[in-house]
Design brief:
By secondary structure, the chain is α+β, with helices and mostly antiparallel strands. The chain has helices at about 130-140, 175-190, 225-240, 255-260; strands at about 10, 20, 55-60, 60-65, 85-90, 95, 100-115, 125, 145-160, 165-175, 200-210, 210-225, 245. The longest helix has 15 residues, at about 175-190.
Length: about 260
Amino acid sequence: MASQAKKVETKGKQGQEVATRSHGAVSTKRSGEVAVPDHIKQGLSRGNEAVGMSDLVIPRLEIVQALSPCLKKSEPTYIEGSQQGNMFNSVTRKLYGSNVVVCPVFFRKEYLVWKDRDQGGGFRGAFPTMVDASARIATEEDPKFFQAVETAQQFSLLMDEETGDIEEIVVSMAKTKLKVSRAWNALVRINGNDRFSRMYNVFTVEDSNDKGDFWNFNVQTLGFSPVEVFKRAEALYESVAKGLRKVVADTTTDDESVLEPGKDY
């Protein structure tokens, strides 16, 4: 794959490398605070008292593909300005462009059950083993129209280059993306220490196989995680490890490599 990553620099005290970027330097400071109207009481969160960590889902980082609904103005999930190869947030629909800075926090492999899109499509659940996923498929009236897709779930934090905000995100990697996930895991092991001790540049590249052309992820190491990111990562790690956080996985995905289980992207 040809790298499309932007130039990356690292800097820090006493020889330590802390991830930053030469184009729109990444930091954890806001470029500008949003003014809150006087009648809105700051510091309160009334109405959310019963919302716990287990009631919150983590959005996916997705890639705009050639057939993604977000490219079509007639679709309710259309994203203005989206282009093939862009990455975006599956919940907020925010576009990130073709490069993002990510801190991986927790890795988990799941087996997602999908119905063939030609038969109506649909997500039927995530399972820890292929045996569990196959048992779920066996309960369907026509099991031949369902498939369990091995999926690597990379729970991560994403640093927004424009605002400095730190966002929770999951990079779901199925089928051809699995090889990128394995390479990412290898980099993490080589780098050592906690999984979230380093930042990585995640960018999109053009890829192809005998089924056609598509966009894929690629990953490269940046530097050590800034203290703000590391602390947030520790908190996310604890909640994911305890099973308190879930991934957004539903029928509204824009990634046809997941929507079409019979298509080997």
